[in-house]
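Hi support team,

I've been running sequence recovery on a batch of backbones for a student project. Most finish fine, but this one hangs at about 90% for roughly twenty minutes before it completes. I'm not sure whether the input is malformed or the queue is just slow. I've pasted the structure tokens below so you can try to reproduce it. Let me know if you need the job ID as well.

Thanks,
M.K.
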């Protein structure tokens, strides 16, 4: 190819990339349930191409809808092609809109294929001194490659094919490619070629004879009998096949070069389209790089506050406002390690007019400290608006302050309105709503906080989520802030001993693994493990992963093999031990705060779409409950001096909620009598009396009970219990026959969700289920399972949050020293002074069990001990 100074034309094979994206990316849709996988893959390809190569000229070629001249030449051409899948057909108009928004021409010529349009333009362009790059993963395009035309394969690492590269990759020179293609045929396009001669044979023959004409002139020189006879018998068919695979470079393409000049996108159309499709990150990239990103929302000129006198005046003025927008800048994402750098506040009057107020810099320049703002922070007469108020609350506690008058947390508003969104951080939400990336300036962020409130509050009211916000999420902020501030004590010496003991276990396990493998290898290398399992030991092999070309050694694959083979079983044990050691045993001591000597996990209020809390640094939700190693890790969580740990756990809360929501008479009767629900299900499904039941039957009943809650299919249940699909389906059928109220609840919930595209918990928490009417069975089935599970799991999440709020208030009202320190799944853990234990035990049990009156009793199991494992 000539020097970069030449004009470069990029010609994109549209349908090639669209089909590739459709089958490579799974289960992607927007909030309305529109499938978006092909649109996203195509858009990402175009985004990458434009950013990396900055074309001078560019166009996308599509096949026309009509029969082509090749169909006239060969009636059976592409006869094997099925109709375009409906989920893909829906996306084509959006892909076209995307090209239009990027101002990239779409080229189509009736009765010609995209390949012919590309080939014609490529030859015309090189005659007029363009350099041409054909963007396609189709090997047919190799026939067009020469000194000025290259083919670009866009993958993880882009590959540009010039003539030597074509020879290296495909085995022949570009001018021989069409001979190989004609000889080998193409089953996808129903091009017959020479029967019995595949791609390798075709390449070898053309390489040896130089051309198809020369090969067909001397078939007797071909040693392999099957090849020789095929060439002699099917000469006309082979020549017809070459004609079909030859790209026509004389198609009637009518376009001027200036029509193909690369232009900046039409941002308004692009923003609207990408927002509709839900491509938030991609939208952010486009907008950030566009000129419009400079016109971010502008802040008012906030006054710098540098004296106690001026601060007192500001606070007096703020008390007259309807609310105050606040932005507290800190220097760490970890609240317990963070220090305040700057505070910006802006009052808003009752007439909704902004009152530009002030800004104070704590990291230099101002004599004021955060503590000097005590009256502002603690005043309940100043309704405050923040984004992520929990972090601010923890930082305030470090300075001996408490948050008073918190009215609105825009992070919580965003979470309640858009629970399926994975990220509710300030930058993400500001960009999602305003298509602007906020600058780091605290005064601007203060203004944007107010704009977030103005945008999100009406949506909260429209979706009738005010009660969930006011009674659950907002009061929970102070509870979680106090829990994070309190932290939990860790026995680091016990963890050090565990680490040494586990290291010895891992060493012994490693020797057993090497012995089972017959060689030493890197146990942390999936590639090496795959080669050992499936090539050296010849175990039943899964399909190789497409991207890496290596065998999958996922947990699922190893579990399938572990029942019959030793090495997979040992590897599962090794991986579990190594993960526990690195994630918890070795990591926990490093997370101990040097100032407090405790671990302060972060409770995430805006992550799980169901409403459940999660935790990070460390993630306490993932400590195994039913393994010895997991229990040992819990033994390292210890109380403060003079205290014991109290653990309170809701018993089978989701099944109790299912009983209430479904009003199933058998479930309700069982819970009201205090029966073991799994024993009762074994009786109902298997017909086995309690005294005749075995542990295995109860285990099966338990799997069925919880499988119903989580919408488990017969396939999933069969896999969990190690039984046939038919037997699992029979168990599920028997369950629904006995628990007919549950079946009616499931059917009713799915039907309602198909109408509304959303579910709600008992307390009104909302979750959108856009894929519920998808024509893609996998998407639709997953959506139906989500629709059934979300009200149950979400109600359980609401219940424990309400209990936490109630208990926190009770502890404060009675001035008890007990601290609520952990929340994991359906369990709360307290650090309790020994002299308060009896009182707190009664208080916690009464509040948790009495937080809401269900049709069946809530039951809480209480345990105490000198560590979390004992409790």
């Amino acid at each position: 190819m000539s020097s970069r100074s030449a004009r470069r034309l990029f010609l994109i094979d549209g349908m090639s990339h669209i089909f590739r994206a459709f089958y490579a990316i799974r289960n992607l849709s927007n909030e309305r349930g529109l499938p978006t996988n092909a649109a996203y893959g195509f858009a990402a390809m175009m985004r990458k191409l434009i950013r990396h190569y900055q074309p001078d000229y560019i166009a996308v070629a599509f096949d026309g809808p009509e029969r082509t001249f090749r169909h006239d030449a060969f009636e059976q051409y592409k006869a094997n092609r099925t109709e375009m899948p409906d989920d893909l057909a829906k996306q084509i108009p959006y892909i076209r809109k995307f090209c239009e928004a990027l101002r990239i021409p779409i080229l189509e010529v009736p009765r010609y294929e995209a390949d012919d349009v590309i080939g014609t333009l490529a030859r015309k362009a090189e005659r007029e001194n363009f350099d041409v790059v054909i963007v396609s993963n189709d090997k047919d395009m190799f026939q067009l490659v020469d000194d000025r035309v290259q083919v670009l394969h866009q993958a993880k690492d882009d590959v540009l094919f010039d003539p030597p590269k074509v020879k290296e990759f495909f085995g022949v020179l570009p001018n021989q490619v069409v001979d190989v293609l004609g000889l080998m045929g193409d089953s996808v396009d129903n091009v017959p070629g020479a029967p019995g001669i595949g791609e390798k044979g075709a390449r070898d023959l053309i390489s040896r004879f130089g051309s198809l004409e020369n090969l067909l002139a001397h078939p007797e020189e071909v040693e392999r009998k099957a090849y020789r006879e095929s060439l002699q018998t099917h000469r006309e068919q082979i020549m017809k096949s070459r004609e079909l695979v030859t790209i026509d470079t004389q198609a009637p393409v009518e376009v001027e070069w200036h029509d193909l000049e690369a232009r900046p996108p039409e941002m308004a159309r692009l923003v609207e389209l990408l927002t509709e499709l839900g491509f938030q990150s991609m939208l952010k990239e486009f907008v950030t790089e566009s000129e419009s990103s400079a016109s971010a929302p502008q802040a008012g000129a906030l006054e710098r506050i540098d004296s106690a006198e001026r601060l007192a005046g500001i606070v007096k003025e703020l008390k007259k406002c309807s609310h105050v927008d606040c932005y507290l800048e800190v220097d760490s994402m970890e609240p317990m390690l963070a220090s305040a750098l700057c505070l910006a506040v802006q009052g808003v009057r009752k007439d909704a007019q902004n009152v530009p107020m002030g800004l104070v810099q704590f990291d230099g320049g101002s004599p004021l400290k955060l503590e000097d703002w005590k009256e502002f922070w603690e005043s309940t007469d100043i309704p405050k608006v923040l984004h992520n108020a929990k972090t601010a609350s923890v930082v305030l506690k470090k300075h001996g302050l408490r948050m008073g008058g918190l009215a609105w947390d825009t992070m919580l508003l965003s979470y309640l309105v858009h629970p399926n969104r994975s990220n509710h951080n300030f930058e993400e939400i500001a960009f999602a709503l305003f298509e602007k990336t906020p600058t780091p300036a605290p005064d601007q962020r203060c203004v944007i906080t107010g704009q977030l409130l103005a945008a999100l509050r009406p949506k909260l009211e429209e979706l009738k989520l005010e009660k969930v916000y006011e009674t659950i999420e907002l009061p929970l902020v102070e509870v979680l802030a106090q829990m994070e501030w309190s932290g939990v004590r860790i026995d680091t010496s016990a963890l050090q001993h565990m680490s040494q003991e586990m290291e010895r276990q891992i060493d012994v396990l490693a020797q057993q693994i090497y012995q089972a493998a017959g060689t030493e290898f890197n146990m942390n290398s999936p590639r090496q493990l795959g080669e050992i399992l499936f090539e050296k030991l010849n175990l039943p092999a899964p399909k190789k992963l497409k991207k890496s070309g290596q065998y999958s050694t996922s947990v699922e694959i190893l579990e399938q093999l572990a029942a019959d083979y030793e090495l997979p079983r040992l590897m599962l044990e090794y991986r579990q031990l190594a993960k526990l050691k690195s994630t918890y045993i070795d990591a926990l001591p490093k997370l101990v705060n040097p100032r407090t000597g405790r671990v302060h996990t972060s409770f995430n209020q805006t992550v799980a779409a169901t409403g459940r809390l999660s935790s990070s640094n460390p993630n306490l939700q993932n400590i195994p409950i039913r393994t010895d190693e997991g229990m040992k890790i819990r033994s390292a969580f210890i109380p403060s001096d003079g205290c014991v740990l109290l653990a309170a756990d809701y018993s089978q809360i989701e099944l109790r909620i299912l009983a209430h929501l479904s009003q199933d008479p058998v479930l309700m009767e069982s819970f009201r009598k205090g029966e073991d629900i799994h024993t009762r299900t074994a009786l109902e499904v298997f017909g086995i009396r309690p005294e005749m039941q075995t542990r295995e039957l109860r285990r099966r009943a338990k799997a069925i009970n919880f499988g119903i809650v989580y919408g488990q299919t017969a396939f999933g249940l069969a896999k969990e219990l190690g039984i046939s699909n038919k037997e699992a389906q029979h168990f599920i059928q028997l369950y629904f026959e006995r628990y007919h109220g549950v079946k009616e609840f499931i059917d009713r919930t799915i039907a309602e969700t198909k109408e509304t595209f959303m579910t709600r918990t008992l307390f009104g928490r909302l979750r959108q289920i856009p894929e519920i009417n998808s024509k893609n069975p996998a998407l639709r089935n997953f959506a139906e399972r989500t629709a059934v599970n979300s009200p149950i799991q979400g109600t359980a999440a609401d219940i424990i949050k309400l209990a936490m709020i109630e208990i926190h208030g009770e502890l404060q009202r009675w001035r008890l020293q007990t601290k609520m320190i952990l929340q994991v799944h359906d369990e709360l853990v307290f650090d309790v002074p020994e002299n308060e234990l009896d009182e707190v035990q009664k208080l916690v049990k009464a509040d948790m069990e009495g937080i809401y009156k269900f049709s069946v009793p809530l039951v809480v199991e209480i345990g105490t001990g000198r560590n979390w494992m004992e409790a």
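--
Follow-up from support: It reproduced on our side and the slowdown came from queue contention, not your input. The chain has 35 helices and 23 strands. No action needed from you.
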